[in-house]
Design a protein that fits this description.
Layout: H1 2-23, E1 25-31, E2 36-37, E3 40-44, E4 50-52, E5 56-59, E6 65-68, E7 74-77, E8 81-84, H2 85-88, H3 99-113, E9 120-122, E10 125-127, E11 132-134, E12 139-141, E13 145-150, E14 159-165, E15 171-176, E16 180-184, E17 195-201, E18 214-218, H4 221-228, H5 232-240, H6 245-256, E19 258-259
Parallel strand pairs: 12-18, 12-19
Antiparallel strand pairs: 1-4, 1-6, 2-3, 2-5, 5-8, 6-7, 9-10, 11-13, 13-16, 14-15, 14-17, 17-18
C-alpha cells in the first residue's frame, strides 16, 4: 500500500512539473537579428525558438522581440536590456484583441511548437494526401495574376494542374515538374464568371469526379478592402508584433484566404 501511494505521489509530481513547464514557455514570433539567449549565447533567436523560465534574453539598442504563448497572448519588447522570463511576460500586449486574433496565435503556437502533431491545418483545410496549398479552399483573390502552389510528392516528378471555370465548366489542364503555376487574368478561362476551382494530381487523367477541388472567387479591389475590415483586429496585433504590410498580407492570404 505504501509503495502504491509513493508511486502516485511521483506520478502527480511528474505531471505537475510537466504542466508547469508547458505553461511557462514562450515562443518567438518575430525578432531582430542577433538577439541571444543566455542558454545559447552563440546562437541567435529565430522564429519558433522557445523561451523557458531559466532563460535570460539580451536586447541591444534598436532591437525588437515579439513572443506568443499557447493561450494566444502576444508580448513585445523593444528596449535594450537583459530580460528574465518574468520580465518578458510583464510586456504582454493588451488591447481589443478579438477571438479571431487569439485563435490565430494559438494556431501559430501549435504550428511552431509542433503541438498539433503531424497533421497540418491552415484555414480549416486538412492537408494529408491533398497536395494543394494556396489558394486555400474558398479563398477570395484580387490580383492580375493568380499563383497556385502545392506540396511536392517525393514519389513523383511530374504534376498535373487542373483549373475549372464553374460557370462554363471549361477545364484547363497543365503539366509541370515544379510546385507552382501562375496564371494571368488575361487567360481565356477567366473571361466568364468569377468562381473557379483547382486541383493538382500526379496522374494526367485522374477521375475528377472522385477528387476534391479547392474553390476560389476572383474579387475586385473594393470587395477586398471591405473584407479586410473584418480582420482589422488581427492586422492591428500583427503590426504591434512588428510585421510589415507585406507580411500581414501574406498571412491574410495563407491563413484566411483573403489574397491580394
Amino acid at each position: 500500500m505504501e509503495a502504491h501511494r509513493y508511486t502516485l505521489i511521483v506520478f502527480f509530481l511528474t505531471f505537475s512539473i510537466h504542466l508547469v513547464s508547458a505553461q511557462e514557455t514562450l515562443c518567438v514570433f518575430k525578432t531582430s537579428p542577433n538577439i541571444v539567449n543566455s542558454a545559447s549565447p552563440t546562437k541567435a533567436l529565430g522564429k519558433g525558438t522557445l523561451i523557458h523560465t531559466s532563460d535570460v534574453i539580451t536586447l541591444k539598442n534598436g532591437d525588437m522581440l515579439s513572443l506568443i504563448d499557447k493561450n494566444g497572448s502576444l508580448y513585445k519588447i523593444d528596449a535594450s536590456g537583459k530580460y528574465t522570463y518574468k520580465q518578458l511576460i510583464s510586456h504582454k500586449v493588451e488591447g481589443d484583441k478579438s477571438s479571431l486574433t487569439s485563435k490565430y496565435f494559438k494556431y501559430l503556437w501549435e504550428e511552431m511548437t509542433h503541438a498539433s502533431g503531424s497533421e497540418t491545418i491552415i484555414g480549416g483545410v486538412f492537408r494529408g494526401e491533398n497536395l494543394m496549398r494556396f489558394p486555400i479552399d474558398s479563398a477570395l483573390v484580387v490580383s492580375s495574376k493568380v499563383k497556385f502552389t502545392w506540396d511536392i510528392d517525393s514519389a513523383s516528378t511530374t504534376y498535373y494542374f487542373f483549373l475549372r471555370n464553374i460557370e462554363t465548366h471549361t477545364l484547363l489542364r497543365l503539366a509541370t515538374n515544379g510546385s507552382e503555376v501562375s496564371l494571368f487574368k488575361e487567360n481565356p478561362i477567366f473571361n466568364t464568371g468569377n468562381s473557379f476551382e483547382w486541383f493538382v494530381d500526379t496522374e494526367a487523367f485522374p477521375n475528377l469526379d472522385n477528387k476534391t477541388f479547392h474553390g476560389f472567387t476572383l474579387i475586385d479591389r473594393a470587395a477586398y478592402e471591405s473584407k479586410k475590415e473584418e480582420f482589422k483586429s488581427v492586422i492591428k496585433e500583427l503590426k504591434i508584433a512588428g510585421l510589415t504590410d507585406q507580411e500581414i498580407e501574406q498571412i491574410l492570404c495563407e491563413t484566411y484566404g483573403l489574397c491580394k
